[in-house]
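Worked example
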Amino acid sequence: MSNLLVIFATGLTAGGLSCLAVQGGMLASSLASESSEKLSRQRLARPIILFLAAKLVAYTVLGLLLGWLGSILQLTPIMRAWLQIAIGVFMIGTALRLLNVHPIFRYFVIEPPKALTRYIRRRTKTSDDHWLSPVFLGTLTVLIPCGVTQAMMALAVGSGDPATGALIMFTFVLGTTPLFFTLAYLAVALGAKMQTRFWKIAGVVVLILGLLAVDTGLNLAGSPFSSAAIRQSSNPAIQSSTAPAPTAETNEVDMTATDSSYTPSIMHAKAGEPITLKVTTKDVRGCARSLVIPSLNMQKLFDANGTGTLIIPKQLPGTIRLTCSMGMYNAEIDVE
């Protein structure tokens, strides 16, 4: 339950804004099909609600399929890392488009084909099917998920269960709905001058989220150039918070996982022998219980409470970087 609350809160905050920035083209097409004249408040709210309702249903079905896919196929850490980096780059391009930095960034928007848009507009003008455009375009948003949504999709795949995957996506998209609706309504209801200011602010926020997405992808890939790796290697306080070296009889290291960190952040092990990593979890509901070793393409999901082990094959001297499945929490094992 607490994990679902975290997912809902993520949608309620970062999810709504980043999704609006990426999927705004679909929503704009939906609103344009209503009328070329100024919409009343009631007519303005109606297509947005239909759009978001269709989106919620579509992503719930997608979550079910992703959970089923996860039961037979697992994305490797490197695959998830590159996917996250690509998402971050697209979000950065979207932000630069909103900030009107250069005409080339106008390509960082995905809209339905113009022929399809014209067909829907003709259909809504010549019939009473005013629900058709927002429902259809809201459903199509599954083809252009934003960066935060992609992280939730990976979580749904990682669940390995159709019902859990559907619940994850339903909870997240439901969380994005209030902010998405409010921002979309204001963006259209405000005058042109206020709209420009609004999208400038949105562009700055999405730029920050895009940079964080790229950094998370680098972290998930085990890159020494991620902010977490740089901070860990250069901070004396972190360096001093290390675990003692293993005894001569064993090559076992202990780590504690919580919902906010891995401790100790730096551990030591002997080279040339298999390493037994013992992980103790304490009421962990988030991604920290899903441990990833990018360089070895290893990953393991631990119980929310208890102690589990992960056997790492014998290694040459060097550093083994550990991260959670979303690249948020980090630790390392220095093999000597």
The chain has two domains: 2-220, 241-335. The CA atoms of residues 67 and 250 lie 39 Å apart. Strands lie at 252-257, 262-263, 266-269, 275-281, 290-293, 298-301, 306-312, 318-324, 330-335.
